[in-house]
Design goal:
The complex is a heterodimer of chains A (361) and B (266). Chain A is an alpha/beta fold and 361 residues long. Chain A contains 14 helices and 15 strands. Classes of the chains: A alpha/beta (361), B alpha/beta (266).
């Protein structure tokens, strides 16, 4: 097992999808993630595993293709970048409302609007607070390396099927475009129709069999009491996610006086900033949320009792800081440092911000 | 002869299609949807494909189509049924997939999805119910509303300068090489109902034979929002809709040759 390769983050999404037994990819080109579909089209997985790959006419169409295929119990994935994810918001809301599993990869770029093709983390709110209409949440996984991008494809499916809820891999133009070594997963066979019937026959719309009732996939319920009950069920799922599936990483937090909180590519920059700060004699640690929803509230609350302050480092104007502040409470200062519009902060800038906003201030 | 001698199982010449559920239809009296649903149920039953047919219902009056036919159904977002059906059909090539869409859903908000699904020749059936108006939301102008037709958003009649022209989307779709069978039908008389059933059966057979997209428009009435009696609405449809949306086959794959599209030599 464990084929070692040098790959781009975008390429590895394609490779991981094929290897994890994905049934289909539907997508639309947008920078900086077009290599996902290009890699798939080059690999021709339909000859190898039977996986379907289709270039749709728009992001809107691709997410609704995902909705259709997911309803029949298939393991399906799409990818896009920020403006395309906005177009998908409608379909994502329907998929969440109809309680279907799928994986959506957002290789973020700077916004708002057409913005820039450079990396950004400005879709944190959109990803973690819903993004489309209605009370729903995505399971949001934030990889900080090509390896994690690879690993989170299968993890995303595992969680999406566990909760029958869409999962998002929230990455960005840095991780999507950079090459790193990656240990690829072994191939998992696609499920047969019989296996799908056995596992998901109670809900999948893949043709009414004689031995079951007809299945209906819909997000519509005109009886408001029943619709409220649906919402209560959704909220119970989200609460269960917060109990069972929070992921995070703590680096050098044991003796830390200050903690940086960062996800994805920012956390990679912060790892270096921790080293630089410690060389200067400042005891700094890093808390890296891996699941942005469910958010690691408890470890942040615990660290808030230990440290003198937290600096939330994001490539945006300050989005995750709101969740960090809520988790940390008011006992310690929680400050934000970010660059926007596609600018990537340097480790030195992070240390300078830490000194200016927390230590010196 | 007494009534019980007449109402007797031996005298039955017609019965409710087995695949129509017992649910009371929510459609207005006089609406065409119920008839089209019945024909769909009959065709699916006749072809014996209940266990492999997946319906995609739209947003509009037929949003609840899934309540009425005993098959698996998925309810799509407004206009997106052809994309949803694409996802199902591509990952379930042994199944028969159809969309059921109105004119606002198919020809307005879902124009991109229907054109591209048909152009790719997705192996599916499209049932397009065109009554020239938005029914569910209360009778607003549709892309297929006739010039001069009064609706809730064209109270003085559709004006070309303000609203543009009625969209003959079925004619557009017939131009696409991905479609194999494109026809326009109606269900206002016993004869046209029988003819429409044949067209729907042919479309489903084409899907079973993997011939690409089959498209059946059913020119229909919305007597409630047209503010007419059902009888008057049928007359109005014949007098005003049929001259513009002319019934009949627009395309039959046995008569056309899509081979004028050739590939570049790489």
């Amino acid at each position: 097992m464990g084929e070692l390769r040098l790959m781009k983050g975008n390429e590895v999404v394609a490779e991981a999808a094929i290897r994890c037994g994905c049934d289909a990819y539907f997508g639309y080109p947008i920078t900086p993630q077009s290599e996902v579909m290009e890699t798939l089209m080059d690999r021709e997985p339909w000859n190898e595993t039977g996986m379907v790959v289709l270039q749709a006419e728009s992001e809107i169409a691709s997410i609704h293709m995902i909705y259709g295929a997911a309803a029949s119990g298939k393991k399906v994935i799409t990818s896009s970048s920020s403006p395309g994810i906005s177009l998908m918001a409608e379909g994502i809301s329907y998929i969440a409302g109809a309680e279907l599993p799928c994986v959506i990869v957002n290789v973020q770029r700077g916004g708002p609007g057409l913005g820039t093709i450079q990396p950004s983390q400005a879709d944190y709110f959109q990803s973690t607070k819903g993004g489309g209409h209605g009370d729903y949440r995505l399971i949001v996984l934030a990889p900080s390396s090509v390896q994690e991008t690879n690993d989170f494809v299968e993890l995303g499916f595992k969680l999406a099927f566990k909760y029958r809820n869409p999962a998002m891999i929230l990455t960005d133009g840095v991780i999507g475009q950079m090459m790193e070594k990656v240990v690829l997963a072994d191939y998992i066979p696609r499920l047969s129709d019989e296996e799908i019937n056995e596992k998901y026959g109670s809900w999948a719309t893949n043709g009414r069999k004689a031995n079951r009732q007809r299945n209906i996939i819909t997000s519509l319920e005109m009886d408001s009491v029943k619709m409220e009950n649906n919402n209560i069920r959704f909220q119970e799922k989200f609460a269960q996610m917060e109990e069972e599936d929070v992921l995070f990483e703590e680096i050098q937090c044991e003796d830390a006086d200050y903690v940086l909180v960062a996800f994805g590519s920012s956390s990679r920059i912060c790892q270096k900033a921790v080293d630089l700060a410690r060389e200067k004699g400042i005891k700094v640690g890093l808390l890296r949320p891996i699941t942005l929803f469910p958010f690691p509230k408890k470890p942040i609350a615990a660290l808030a009792k230990q440290v003198k302050g937290m600096l939330v480092v994001e490539m945006n104007a300050g989005q995750m800081i709101e969740d960090v502040q809520l988790a940390a409470g008011c006992a310690i200062p929680v400050k934000h440092f970010g660059r926007m519009g596609g600018v990537i902060p340097s480790p030195g800038e992070v240390v300078a911000a830490l000194e200016q906003k927390l230590i010196g201030g | 002869m007494e009534l019980k001698d007449i109402i007797n199982p031996n005298n039955l010449v017609y019965e409710k299609p087995k695949l129509l559920t017992e649910n009371t239809m929510h459609y207005c009296p006089g609406c065409s949807h119920g008839v089209v649903h019945k024909l769909l149920a009959e065709v699916i039953e006749d072809l014996g494909i209940q266990d492999k047919t997946i319906g995609v219902s739209p947003v509009g009056c037929a949003v609840f189509a899934y309540n009425y036919i005993e098959i698996d159904w998925q309810e799509a977002a407004h206009g997106r049924a052809p994309a949803v059906a694409t996802g199902i059909a591509r990952t379930n090539p042994d199944k028969v997939v159809f969309t059921y869409q109105g004119d606002g859903d198919l020809a307005s908000i879902g124009a991109a999805e229907i054109l591209h699904a048909c152009n790719r020749g997705e192996n599916m059936v499209v049932i397009f119910v065109n009554n020239g108006i938005y029914g569910m939301t209360g009778g607003q102008m549709a892309p297929t509303t006739l010039i001069g037709q009064v609706t809730a958003t064209t109270p003085n009649g559709r004006d070309v300068g303000r609203n543009g022209y009625p969209l003959k989307i079925t004619e557009l779709i017939a131009q696409l090489p991905g479609t194999s069978y494109v026809t326009r039908q109606s269900v206002h008389t016993p004869a046209t109902i029988r003819k429409c059933k044949k067209a729907i059966a042919k479309a489903f057979q084409a899907a079973l034979d993997k011939k690409g997209t089959s498209f059946v428009e059913v020119v229909s009435t919305c007597n409630m929002n047209w503010k007419m009696t059902p009888v008057k609405a049928n007359e109005w449809m014949v007098d005003n809709m049929f001259p513009f949306y002319v019934p009949g086959d627009l395309k039959d794959s046995s008569k056309t040759d899509p081979a004028s599209y050739t590939a570049l030599k790489n």
